[in-house]
Amino acid sequence: MGKRKRRGRIEGIPEFEFETEKLIQLFKEKRRPLSIQDLLKNLNLERKSRRNLKEFLKNLAREGRVIRVYRNRYALPETLDLVIGRVKRHPDGYGFVIPEEEGQEDIFISPKDLNGVMNGDRVSVRVESRKKGRRGRIIKILERKTHKIVGKFVKGKSYSYVIAENEKIPQEVYIPEGETKRARSNQIVVAEITQYPTERSRARGRITHILGYPDDPDIEPQIIIHKYNLPLRFSSSALRQVKNIPQALSSEDYYGRIDLRWLQTFTIDGERAMDFDDAVSIRKKDGGVVLYVSISDVSHYVEEGSALDEEAYQRGTSIYFPDRAIQMFPPELSNEICCLHPRVDRLTLTVEIEFDQNAEKKEVRFYPSIIKSNERLTYTIVKKILVDKDSELRKKFNYIISSLEQMLWLSQKLRQKRLGRGAIDFDLPEPEVILNLQGEADNIVRAERNVAHQIIEEFMIAANEAVAEFMEKRGVPFIYRIHEPPKKESIDEFRKFLSHLGYKMRKESKTSPKEFQRILTEVRGKPEERVINEVLLRSMRWAKYSTNNVGHFGLASNAYTHFTSPIRRYPDLIVHRLLKLALSHQKVTISEELLSKKAEHLSQRERVAMEAEREILDRYRVKYMKGKVGEEFDGIISGMTPMGFFVELKEIFVEGLVKTTTLNDDDYQFNERRYCLIGKRTKKTFKIGDEVRVKLAKVDTGKRQIDFILVKSLS
Asked: What's the pLDDT at 213?
């Protein structure tokens, strides 16, 4: 009981004096604003507690759990018809408040009510209208999200200012004389906000970094690093700890581990990968096979609670740019002793799964192990061996061909079973930026996804599911990878969208992943395949980490986790530690409450990484295309809007918009029912899948938009 009383306390206040839940309950019962005197009386507290109570209430107000109103009175937000949430501004001036309480509808905020409010601010808002969606007015800013901005420096005659790169931050930040760090006009800078905007005054700041000019080759990564507050270097204490980690195994390291060095083992990764944390092995047994998925035992080297561990937790994940990686661990660890290099002994955690001749799971084992990888293979090499039957490579790797063919058979069976139970298999190409020696984009292509990718994907899914199922049966606190079913409104919108393209969803299967996969299978190879994949993906909720296992909708899995990448994902490291405790029959000491907070933090870090990686690809794309204005390209219409149609180029993996205002031969209207543009006079149509030739008209690097004009139809 003592621990419960500590929640919500502040330093210096006796633990028996104030209990957060008791205080909240009092506000709920009274349903009106209460003064300090009211609270002292109702809580049977003496007058000497007044000062501590005021501090306690201020703390709760900062968290947004109570709101300070007139004459030093406090109340719960819900009793004042207030909603707590984060502001999401739109470049056109208006915005929305995204409520913290799940299930609540977003609240529209007009531009005039956003004065002084910045994107991401945590606010209390009063809902003032519910017609055609909720509209509201911001009552109070509870917490500022933006502390610095990255943007273009403009030096004026009377004053200087910074225009944010982020179009969701429309406010210019005024830079006083003496705080410019001698920045020049049009340079990209980082400005720390020293005074936030109000209804009557603009934001003020000071320049902390000068990143360079917009056309500098290295400017894109620098912008992203500062914009998303990505760590530039490791702390000295973390680096000292890494230096003390031996780069070779000692005799003690082998104790208590199963020796798998006799097995034929190899890693399969991308050509540019440097941190190999998963290795696979396979052998025949009783007409079936035994699969071994061995994962680098990072937890053996990184002590929980150490400086190195804390830094990895704060980072949450490695982040990958076209020209560099911002790693979760220093390279001395991730690229050396924890990396499963070929022909050296390495410590691992192994998931051993026995399958029968039909690829049905028979038995699963988990244990600490030692492996020695035979080869460092790439996806391209494996594809050439298995699919292209490359004679030279088959001769070189003759001794592992049998293992690769068994892996191909098993992965195909597992994939077939996974899709059969309803897993959704999105087929969306990923962009790959090819850089020249100067670090500039030389081309942008579709990243290849072949059978080798599918082999590793299926084996990692099998291992992750096995660990999650094992830990769920133990009934101990654990971090799952969950994916909740989409909201009903999202499904209804997707169903409506499909109907415009001539497809139907079965009504009795509203939230079945199997029904979504049926649609994706039906459209495979058709012109509208990509847009349907994209719209369906946008209809889904984000996958996240949670201690509450609700299953994984997209994988049609009852229990799932992330176990297979502890070098680059911190949740996997937590899972390794919890699995080790379970295997050694030790008690899990971490509380579910603390583990839940860690899961939330790591989900947020993953989201930041994804947004940063997506934005830098967009930046490389527009910068690459900027030098091609006036050139003509062949492409395919990939999307439709009332404003025009999107064209995906054939030679370069880039998409841009042809606006209806540039189609001069007719007045084109968007037909929602047929999902196409139709000319009023000529009845000429533009629809998804049509081949066209376009000319690059304009590239807006600030908004990261590419505009084409139509040259002619090719269909």
From this structure: 94
